[in-house]
Design a protein that fits this description.
This protein has about 325 residues and is of the alpha/beta class. The chain has nine helices and 15 strands. The strands form two sheets. It has a nine-stranded mixed sheet with strand order 14-13-12-11-7-10-9-8-15. It has a six-stranded parallel sheet with strand order 3-2-1-4-5-6, sandwiched between helices. The model has no long low-confidence stretch (mean pLDDT about 95). The chain binds nicotinamide-adenine-dinucleotide.
Length: about 325
């Protein structure tokens, strides 16, 4: 009998102990009902020691990037959560699937649609589930925006606008195209296109995009610094989005026939604020990440599909690829 396997809960191993895993996912795993922090995979031995002490992770559940595949023999680990820089998502998801584990992969799912296909195929072949770290599907403010839009509480939607930007630091892997796959669109703009899709329940039929001139050619080498992009949804709805690594912007606004409703800030982990024609939105604070991980664990336990499956991650990488093509060519790209 394994003394570390917690009764009824699925064991999660976090791969990559950077800011997101350390600041958000590990604390959220202290609040989850259906899963718990069972293991870690890190290339930094000093981090392994800190996490072991802080979270009581047994030595046998600590791996590095080289011996990671041996996780297949570890019954404590049910789910591998890949929280590495974008270019490592595909190889680690595929390794995790081959090790017979369910997988959660951070956004953006991969650098190409072909990689997404390989990741989905590897999980299917292993008979394991794949989900994407789309935490806002589990946030009450976004659920309410979606309800207001879908139930036409303020009439038909006429227009959507969204912006997500922050100032990126020089030297980060996010600014290195080989590791990130692109600029703020991959990292932040993806939230805007996600919101356009889940609030409407639609997918774009065509996209256009315009990048702004680069202010610092050394910092933004080969990636966009600021990008405006437009998603043409069926029924004529247009989503106008902006993303940047040199600004601070954080909102989602939906204009409907009888008024507008919005979140500002929209995409943070907490502290979201919402406004509708009938007044402010107010929800109890919760951990988006705890809800997200619990939802995946229950989906696995109950053999139900994930709300944020690999196929959704693939769809978004496909949209991103089209947006980049529109940016490069100046053309309207049909999906
Ligand atoms: P980070 O730079 O803080 O952490 C990255 C980790 O990967 C570090 O522990 C680093 O040591 C490790 N690593 C291994 N090989 C590396 C390499 N070749 N180059 C750089 N780092 C390497 O990044 P982060 O902010 O934690 O982001 C990790 C992933 O999580 C990204 O895919 C990002 O898009 C995603 N993310 C998602 C959210 C969300 O809200 N869902 C928020 C932040 C980050």
């Amino acid at each position: 009998m394994n003394q570390n396997k917690k009764e009824g809960k699925l064991g999660i191993a976090l791969v990559g102990l950077g800011n997101y895993a350390t600041g958000q996912l590990a604390p959220a795993l202290q609040q989850t009902e259906h899963c718990y922090l069972a293991g870690i995979v890190t290339g930094t031995p000093s981090k392994a020691q800190t996490w072991k002490d802080q979270y009581g992770i047994p030595e046998k559940n600590i791996y590095n990037y080289d011996n990671f595949d041996a996780i297949k023999d570890n019954p404590d680990i049910d789910i591998v959560y890949v929280v590495l820089p974008n270019f490592l998502h595909a190889p680690f998801v595929i390794r995790a699937a081959k090790a017979g584990k369910h997988v959660t992969c951070e956004k953006p799912m991969a650098l190409s649609v072909a990689d997404c296909d390989s990741m989905i195929a590897a999980c299917k072949q292993a008979g394991k589930m794949l989900s994407i770290g789309y935490r806002l599907h589990f946030d009450p403010y976004h659920a309410e925006m979606t309800r207001l839009a879908k139930e036409k509480i303020y009439g038909n939607i006429k227009h959507i606008s969204a912006g997500f930007s922050f100032v990126a630091k020089k030297g980060e892997w996010r600014l290195d195209k080989t590791r990130s796959g692109g600029g703020p669109l991959m990292d932040l703009g993806i939230y805007c296109l996600q919101a356009a899709c889940y609030t409407t329940g639609l997918q774009p039929i065509a996209v256009t995009a315009q990048s702004s001139p680069i202010s610092d050619k050394e910092k933004f080498n080969g990636i966009e610094e600021t990008l405006d992009f437009q998603l043409e949804m069926p029924n004529g709805i247009k989503a106008e989005c902006r993303t940047s690594y040199s600004e601070n912007m954080n909102f989602l606004k939906i204009d409907a026939e009888k008024g507008s409703f919005e979140l500002r800030p929209a995409f943070n982990y907490n502290g979201l604020k919402g406004q509708t024609p009938d007044g402010p939105l107010q929800f109890q604070p919760l951990s988006q990440q705890a809800k997200q991980m619990d939802d995946f664990a229950s989906a696995i336990k109950n053999s139900q599909p994930s709300k944020v499956p690999g196929e959704m991650g693939r769809r978004d990488v496909k949209i991103i690829t089209a947006i980049y093509e529109a940016m490069r060519t100046g053309k309207r790209i049909e999906m």
